[in-house]
Amino acid sequence: MPELPEVETVRRGLEQHVGGRTVESVQVLHPRAVRRHLAGAPDFEAALAGRSLDAARRRGKYLWLSAGEDGLLAHLGMSGQLLVGEPSRPLSPHVRIRFAFSDGGPDLRFTDQRTFGHMAFVPGGAELPGPIAHIAPDPFEAAYDARTVATRLRARRTGVKRALLDQTLVSGVGNIYADEALWRAGLHWARPTETLNGPEVSRLLAAVRDVLGEALAAGGTSFDALYVNVNGQSGYFDRSLAVYGRENLPCPRCGTPVRRDAFMNRSSYTCPRCQPRPRRAHW
DNA sequence: CTGCACCCCTGTAGGC
DNA sequence: TGCCTACAGGGGTGCA
After folding, report:
1. Does residue A282 reach within 7 angstroms of strand B, measured from its CB?
2. Does residue A17 contact residue A84 with C-beta atoms inside 8 Å?
3. How far apart are CA A50 and CA A211, in angstroms?
4. CA A269 → C1' C8, Å?
5. Smallest CA–C1' distance to B7, residue
6. Looking at domain A4-132, which CATH architecture does it have?
7. For A44-95, what is each residue's pLDDT tens digit?
8. Ramachandran region of residue A196, left (φ > 0), alpha (ψ -120 to 50) or beta?
9. Which CATH number applies to A146-270: 3.90.550.10, 1.10.8.50, 1.20.1050.10, 1.10.8.60?
10. What is the pTM of this model?
């Protein structure tokens, strides 16, 4: 479950169901799931055995569990799930890592069909794991400063959607919520960042924060069973999407059919009337 | 600093 | 039924 609202939903579930529990053993079932743990799968398993997991934290789309001064870092990629359930339930074919706990209670399974996600044990990484030091604060962190982001955004020489998706500028925004925020702000994805005026940038950043917050309140967006919380349940923000995935359906604001464009090997959805294409496009 | 091409994977949907 | 292509909420890397 990729973007901030979905990852935050998972973080909350982990905090509730795994926080304060002690890992008994870990099995890495697919080596690719720990490819960023450079010391290898056996080291990953050994490093976590016997460790007590404390708080669950998050920056953007990354989350981690602190274990004393250390951190257990996770990124869900396109299809990763962190599922908590009865240890006796069947092992689904896409389970990549299994964590058993010393209390004999529900286990934790990192499940990932496409294996774009990963986990790593980061010594000393409880506060902010080293591998994600380059990730910018997300809009819900105390360290996030909208004025700084606005300044940096306007200094870019690129298209506004490309900038929104750049996790080193502001983190947590992916393809769905970038399109939704741009629609709310009435901006086209190809708009050159240097042509945005102050009010437009403010409107956009407010829209980003609002849409992420509303989606979080709905438990995230799921179109299918791939995007679920730790209990396997889907969020329902898909009902509130204005443009994403709605090609040819009417814009909720003006009724004009939503348009789909290819962009960065993905799709961008816009209302051609509310988000007019700029004369000088930047993609 | 930037875009861009391409890589990592599996599964599904749709056309033929 | 098979075979093909396009596409899917991710990021990282290397190169121009």
Report:
1. yes
2. yes
3. 40
4. 15
5. A116
6. Alpha-Beta Barrel (3.20)
7. 999 999 999 999 999 999 999 999 999 999 999 999 999 999 999 999 999 9
8. beta
9. 1.10.8.50
10. 0.97
